[in-house]
């Protein structure tokens, strides 16, 4: 399934946890066709804007590191050669694996650690990379490499503000390269603006009109994810209020959420959503370890 999706849709080169990649066909089917400005207050890794046509993109996420990463790639999109050359130099300098650049893992290591050879090979290189980034946190290209080679492609900082994820069992491979090329190609010719603030402040800073479209993918109250720690009942109530205000101004919106997950139920959101159009969205993907996809009721709620 993923391979056929990748032929049709741009995969975000951030491989963001909880991204909307697998749901894109269903989201797109429900999006308006005539979008002046595409406004996305919780854009995360960007998999939705990267697959939406609009005249202008106003994007936001409270995670300033994610926004810095987007800005980095957008800046490089006008000079891709510099990007590939800089990234290859860093990969060689740290002696990381990179099947794409022909830097493969020795056969002996593959045999000895058949399931974890990338992690074994990259561990020391990754530790050096992480130490260098923590010494100069303005070096966003190092942060991108940490994300690619790190555990689950995540970004996480400890209380002291240091990046603290361990190495992942991953590589700079053809999928990463294809996603980067797709990103560069998409953003190159587009008018895209990024902000990093709370969603409400962001929406208040824009004069939204009826020709615009606001898509929202907030953290979900009842599922687990690193960024869900930032989200609580108060945020949910603010979100609902903001959406009702957009509706009163005839601004089209669509918001993703989960009505129930395993034994948890989001009553507040469900009750609120009844006044709008509720579309159930289904991911056909069921993970090998966790066969519980069917216990999740995910929806797209739209006011048009
Ligand atoms: C479900 S994720 C979005 C994923 C995105 N749709 C994608 O495909 O990558 C939710 C995002 O909301 C952001 N977030 C959390 N609280 C926020 C807030 N108060 N204002 C704006 N963004 C927030 C998180 O950093 C996270 O990136």
Assign the CATH architecture of the largest domain: 3-Layer(aba) Sandwich
Estimated share of beta-strand residues: 5-15%
Give the N-terminus to C-terminus distance in angstroms: 30 Å
Rg (C-alpha, Å): 20 Å
Topology, number of strands: 8
Bound molecules: S-adenosylmethionine
CATH topology of the largest domain, which one?
Answer: Rossmann fold
Helix content: 25-40%
**Unreliable sequence segments:** none
Task: Work out the count of structural domains.
Answer: 2
CATH superfamily of the largest domain: Vaccinia Virus protein VP39
The structural class is: alpha/beta
Major beta sheet, specifics? 8 strands, mixed
Mean pLDDT: 93
Which H/E pattern describes the elements?
HHEEHHHHHHEHEHEEHEE
Summarize the structure in words.
The protein is of the alpha/beta class and 304 residues long. It folds into two domains: 2-63 and 196-302, Vaccinia Virus protein VP39 (Rossmann fold), CATH 3.40.50; 76-178, Adenine-specific Methyltransferase, domain 2. Helices cover 40% and strands 13% of the residues. It is built from eleven helices and eight strands. Strands 1, 2, 3, 4, 5, 6, 7 and 8 form an eight-stranded mixed sheet that branches. A hairpin with a 2-residue loop joins strand 5 and strand 6 (264-265). Helix 3 crosses helix 7 (140-149) and helix 6 packs antiparallel against helix 7. The radius of gyration is 20 Å and the shape is globular. The protein starts with a helix and ends with a strand. The model has no long low-confidence stretch (mean pLDDT 93). S-adenosylmethionine (SAM) binds next to loops.
């Amino acid at each position: 399934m993923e391979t056929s999706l990748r032929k049709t849709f741009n995969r975000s080169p951030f491989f963001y946890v909880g991204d909307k990649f697998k749901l894109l066909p269903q989201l797109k089917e429900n999006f308006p066709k005539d979008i002046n400005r595409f406004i996305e207050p919780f854009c995360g890794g960007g998999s939705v804007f990267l697959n939406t046509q609009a005249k202008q993109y106003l994007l936001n996420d409270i995670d300033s590191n994610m926004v810095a990463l987007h800005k980095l790639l957008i800046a490089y999109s006008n000079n891709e050669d510099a990007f590939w050359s800089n990234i290859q130099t860093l990969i060689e300098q740290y002696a990381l694996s990179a099947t794409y650049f022909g830097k493969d893992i020795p056969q002996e290591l593959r045999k000895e650690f058949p399931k974890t050879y990338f992690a074994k090979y990259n561990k020391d290189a990754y530790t050096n990379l992480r130490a260098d980034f923590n010494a100069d946190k303005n070096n966003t290209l190092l942060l991108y490499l940490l994300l690619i080679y790190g555990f689950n492609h995540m970004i996480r900082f400890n209380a002291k503000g240091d990046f603290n994820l361990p190495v992942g069992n991953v590589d700079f491979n053809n999928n990463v390269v294809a996603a980067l090329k797709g990103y560069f190609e998409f953003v190159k010719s587009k008018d895209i603006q990024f902000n990093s603030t709370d969603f409400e402040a962001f929406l208040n800073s824009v004069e939204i009109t009826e020709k615009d479209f606001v898509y929202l993918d907030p953290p979900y109250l009842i599922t687990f994810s690193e960024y869900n720690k930032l989200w609580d009942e108060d945020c949910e109530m603010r979100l609902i209020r903001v959406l009702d205000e957009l509706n009163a101004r005839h601004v089209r919106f669509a918001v993703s959420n989960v009505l129930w997950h395993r034994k948890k139920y989001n009553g507040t959101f469900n009750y609120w959503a009844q006044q709008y159009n509720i579309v159930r969205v289904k991911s056909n993907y069921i993970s090998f370890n966790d066969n519980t996809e069917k216990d999740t009721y995910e929806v797209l709620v739209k006011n048009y």
